[in-house]
Amino acid sequence: MQELLDALGLDYGVKWIEQDLHEWESGEGVQHHLSAYGGMGSFNDIGIGDVWAEALLRELRSVCYYFAHHLTDKRDTVALEQSMGSYWAQLWGIRCLACGCSVTPQYRLLYCQSSR
User: Fold this and answer.
1) Residue 105 belongs to what domain range?
2) Which residues face 43 on adjacent strands?
3) pLDDT tens-place string over residues 62-99
């Protein structure tokens, strides 16, 4: 998540994650990280404008939130997937790995938004 936030130029998010990692590594816990998920200006409020980056950030937020709540549990991918929920209408399109240009048909964007 830290690398994505950095790539998007979201410095406050990068600093937040740096603090999270420091507290985790020093044994202080995950409360700082979990506090990023509620209230105004939280990780849930980040709007990027790039549907692909937003989809990736949404997935990373869900994974980080799940692991913060299940620190000592054995890694269970089924439970992780269930906690993240699923959308039967998936966003799709194409993206050039060389230049980053992406194309998603407008009707697919509307369909994906309306099905949530």
Assistant:
1) 88-116
2) none
3) 888 888 888 877 888 888 878 877 544 455 667 777 87
Q: Is the same domain home to 13 and 56?
A: yes
> Which residue in 85, 29, 91 sits closest to 55, CA to CA?
91
Residue 74 DSSP code: P
C-alpha distances out from residue 86 to 58, 78, 80, 89, 103, Å: 12, 12, 11, 9, 23
Residue 7 and residue 46 share a domain: yes
How many other CB atoms are found less than 10 A from the CB of residue 17?
A: 22
**Cα separation of 51 and 2, whole Å?**
18
Task: Tell if the pTM clears 0.70, that is, is over it.
Answer: no
Length of the chain: 116
Regarding whether 108 and 59 lie in a shared domain, the answer is: no
C-alpha dihedral over 81, 41, 27, 4, to 10 degrees? 60
d(CA 109, CA 93): 10
- Separation CA 2–CA 17 (nearest Å): 6
